[in-house]
Amino acid sequence: MSAIIPVDDFDCVVFGATGDLTLRKLVPALYNRFRDTQFSDQCRIIGAARSELTDASYRDRASKALHAHVPAADLKPDTLEAFLALVHYARTDGGQADGFGALTELLQTAPDRIRVFYLATSPHLYGTICENLAANGLITPQSRVVLEKPIGHDLESARQINDDVGKVFEERQIFRIDHFLGKETVQNLLALRFANVIFERIWNAENIDHVQITVAETVGVEGRGDYYDHAGALRDMVQNHLLQLVCLLAMEPPLDLQETALRDEKLKVLRALRPIAAHEVAQVTVRGQYVGGAIAGKAVDSYIADLGEASSTETFVALKLELRSWRWANVPFYLRTGKRLPQKVSEIVIQFRDIPFSVFPRDAADMRPNRLVIRLQPEEGIQLQLMTKDPGPGGLRLRPADLDIHFEKAFSVRYPDAYERLLMDTVRGYATLFMRRDEVEAAWAWVEPILQAWAAGTEKPRPYASGSWGPTAAIALIERDGRTWHEELG
Ligand code: BG6
Fold it and tell me: Measured from the CB, is residue 217 less than 6 Å from ligand 1?
């Protein structure tokens, strides 16, 4: 396990303190970092929301959230008690300049300390909250703001939010979070590509036939209908998480891993995405919406039933994208993501090209080109499919076999949640794993014509049964090109 490097004392103010993200992800992440002694008992975690709560009643909520989301074995009573003592509540109306009294009072007691303002609210409030933080004199040189995705719902709204936040925070103080970048195996992509000699030299169109990225979830819309129905899978997952994966896979080696070099390279990838013209959208994208079905033997409802009203929002997207670059010319990237699919699994498949010439007799093998599978979750690991000799005397026959690394088993460690890493990076002011303004806007610029073509068309998302791999059109999308989705999931 890497050494734990303690961070300086900080106050972390979470707007949207009673929301799902805060209680399910942020509070457990902070608890785990505290348990590992990464920060001291002088730090404060300040919940800010409109509800009438006290320190005691908010601690009670935090405690319940920890019991629900942290394994019991990790909840030692004295650690839990010490952590909850750091939790405070300041009733705050982020939308009103005069709604910051309680928060101001609390923060004033430690004016020089690092302040993290974490905005886990609807993005339309980001600008106003920041303006009100400034109006109340709460933004110090040691302050940073964390913006949860999505930053807006299209290019224009993203620009507006970036402008508004940029009026009171400098770019170096703005941390636009994409939690996929905090996942261990996503960072492992950097290690795989740039710390090994064997991959980078073949990481190009000459050797790679195509790339597949699948991010599948079994959950439905859960209690997030209000947000999700206005977003849909393209905005919720593709514009950020999946395109960030494309960036890390496709970028040129950066000069170093500092924030400027790495993000410059990612930006070049986003700018190299071939724009999809309106007339092509129906050919290269598929959107779907789940209907009832069963997952792991359990019956589940349709999206419409989960939502409680009619909707044409997509809960599944598959698409084919291309990059305009020497390295990736004519190498398609096939992306798919959806809710209510058969398994929760995120993986990247690098499909290499066939060998140029076979010395083996035709009946010796069902010759399969090499394939590298990078499993992001669950069971993080890497699998390289190779052709090997089928053991035994007699002729030389071949069969595929896997070189398989299963990280958790190999290193016997708990894989920290993405938010743990990213929250500590924020305190440190380390922005490499956060999105820069120009990246967010470039991603929206690429996605927007797809959204527009969908909105202009009369076609609705295609229905798919919960527990299936999405609409059959998603299979046709890749099979039209003579390829198939990787099936050895699970
Ligand atoms: C979030 C999306 O950003 O990522 C959710 O808003 C999605 O809809 C989630 O469920 C998936 O994250 P993870 O870490 O569970 O793969």
Answer: yes
- Atom 2 (ligand 1): residue with closest C-alpha? 236
End-to-end CA distance of the chain: 27
Residue nearest to atom 13 of ligand 1 (CA): 180
Please determine, for residue 1, whether its predicted confidence score (pLDDT) is greater than 70. Answer: no
Tokens coding 473: 């059109």
Of the residues 241, 279, 406, 486, only one is catalytic, namely 241
Tokens 């494309």 found at: 246
Atom 15 in ligand 1: which residue has the minimum CA distance?
217
Q: Which of 58, 57, 136 is nearest to 93 (CA)?
A: 136
- The pLDDT confidence band at residue 429, using thresholds 50, 70 and 90, is very high
Give the closest residue (by CA) to ligand 1 atom 8: 236
Q: Which of 151, 217, 337 to mutate to test the pocket of ligand 1 (most atoms within 8 A of CB)?
A: 217
Averaged pLDDT, 141-145: 97
241 classed as catalytic: yes
Mean pLDDT of the chain: 95
Q: What is the pTM of this model?
A: 0.95
Query: How many angstroms separate the CA atoms of 174 and 347, rounded?
Result: 29
Ligand 1 centroid, distance to 332 Cα (angstroms): 25
Per the omega criterion (within 30 degrees of 0), is the bond before 275 cis?
no
Query: What is the Å distance from ligand 1's center to 245 Cα?
Result: 14
The neighbour count for residue 453, using CB atoms within 10 Å, is 17
Determine how β-strand 316-321 pairs with β-strand 333-338: antiparallel
Q: Could you tell me the pLDDT band of residue 366, with boundaries at 50, 70 and 90?
A: confident
Q: Give yes or no for residue 162 having a pLDDT over 70.
A: yes
Mean pLDDT of 412-419: 85
The pLDDT value recorded for residue 450 is: 97
- The Cα 259–Cα 254 span in angstroms is 10
Q: Among 25, 148, 179, 419, which is best to mutate for testing ligand 1, by the most ligand atoms less than 8 A from CB?
A: 179
Counting from 1 in the atom list of ligand 1, the atom nearest the Cα of 227 is 6
Res. 490: pLDDT tops 60? no
Q: Please state the separation of Cα 366 from the chain's center in Å.
A: 37
Question: What pLDDT is attached to residue 488?
Answer: 59
